Every structure is written in structure tokens, then in C-alpha cells.
Amino acid sequence: MTATTVEPSVRVERDGAVATLVLNEPKSMNAMSAGIKAGIEDHLPALLADPEVRAIVITGTGRAFCAGGDIRSMDDRGTLTVRARMTRTYRWLVPLLTADKPVICAVNGAAAGAGLSLALTGDLIVASRDARFKAGFPGLGAAADLGLAYTLPRAVGYQRASDILLTNREVSAEEAHAMGLVARLTEPEALMATTMELAQALARGPTVSLALTKRLMRRAYELPIEGFLEAEALSQAVAFGSADFDEGVAAFKGKRKPDFKGR
To answer: 188 and 63 in contact (C-beta within 8 Å)?
Structure first.
């Protein structure tokens, strides 16, 4: 008998300095099953720590990016169980939200509930015109989770976030692009090519500079202006001391494209 090959719930694909994390349970529309959560938790730390990986893409197989939480995992609703389950998810969520490396989410279809939360862990969302976005949580009587009430208002503003999170209405790809939730909108067949072109460009970029800029954008919501400008000055001092800055200056003077090495 021929052994049946079991597809992993999450697979990793490498293309040079870009690593793609693929949610791979299309039958359940890549709902956040125990297998998908474990796969992300297993693979993500290595990708974040690998200096050869300079940009990360997250996408899904089939007709959905991620259809939200897996209802099958919600039978045990005890307070301690739910809190423990959320705490385990935060082991990979926090490093993803605070990653120095650029993260792009390529949304190929439905991004609902936890799937919308996952999409917003990316610095940039590239979406197919087939994509659609929905909070999902109000339909179950659940609170928004995986940081969604933190990330969504920062992406689209408080009023639009309230409309999406409280009314549970579906947002089309076109509307999501118009409101700033989606950075780039593509035809379905061009989604991954567009995403990879963007990811490769970021991977060729000045890694230190991009990381410092990401940190400054996060701090902008936390610090008074004096504290922010102090952080900005320190960041610029670090950037000026990097090999990539030396290369950028040399390339500018030599009227050529810079060849950043990510250090």
C-alpha cells in the first residue's frame, strides 16, 4: 500500500530573502485550528530570527485567507481554558506584531474574525479583488481578539473601525482599499506575483532602517512628542552607523542603485 502524504497545516516557502508562511487547511477555509496555530508557533520564531530572511509574507491556500477561529476548538469555554488558549496564541502574535522585518499579508479571499486580525499583523496588506473582510466576533457574541481592536483603529481610524467591529458588516476589497485597510489591490491571478515583487523589494532594502522606522511608527501612538523625538534621534544615530547607510551614501554619490546587505 502507498502511504498517504499528509499536508502540513502550515508550510513555509523560501524565495531568496523572502519567506512565505502559507496557511494550508483549505477545506476549513484556513480557520485557526490547533494545527494552524501550532504551525505558526513552530515556524515563525525561526523566520524572525533568521538573518537570511529579510521579509515575510503570510497567505492562505484555496478560496480564503483565514475564515476566523475554529469553532471546533471552542467547546471548552471555561474562563481559565480560554485565557490559557489566548496566552498561548500571544506567544507568536506579539513577536509578529513587533517584528523588525517587513511583514506582508496577501489576502486571497475571506479574512474574517481572527483572519482579519491576522491580516492586520502585516505592515502591508495586498488583496485580491476577491478578498472580503469581516469582524465576525459580534456574530458569535465574542470580543474582538488577536489584537484587532488595537490594530484596526490604527489602520482606518476610530469611526471606521467602530463601524466594522460593532456592526459586523462585510467590507469588500475595493472598499477596504479605499479606506486604507488594504495597501494594494490586484486581480486574483496577480495577487502572489504583486506580493512577491513588493516583498523582494523590501528584502533588498536597508534592513536596519526599515526596522527602526517600524519601531518609531509603533512608538508614535505611545509617546508624547518630546519622548518620540528623543527616540527618533536615537534611531537616526543607529541608522547612520549602519553599513547600509554607508552603502546608501556611496550609491547616491556614485549615481547608482544601492546594494543593501541588511546590516
So the answer is: no
Q: What is the dihedral of CA 107, 113, 119, 121, to 10 degrees?
A: -170
Q: Is the dihedral of CA 161, 60, 43, 211 positive or negative?
A: negative
- The residue whose grid cell reads 482599499 is 177
- Where the chain has pLDDT below 50, the residues are 1
* Residue 6: predicted pLDDT: 79
Kindly calculate the radius of gyration of the chain based on its CA atoms and give it in whole angstroms.
19
Give the pLDDT of residue 248: 95
14-32: b (≥16 Cβ within 10 Å) or e? eeebbbbbbbbbeebbbbb
Contact between 115 and 32 (Cβ < 8 Å): yes
Amino acid at 75: D
Distance CA 107, CA 165 (A): 19
Supply 42's cell numbers: 513552530
The candidate with the shortest Cα–Cα distance to 32, out of 64, 57, 6, is 64
- How many angstroms separate the Cα of 91 from the Cα of each of 33, 40, 84, 96, 97? 16, 10, 11, 9, 11
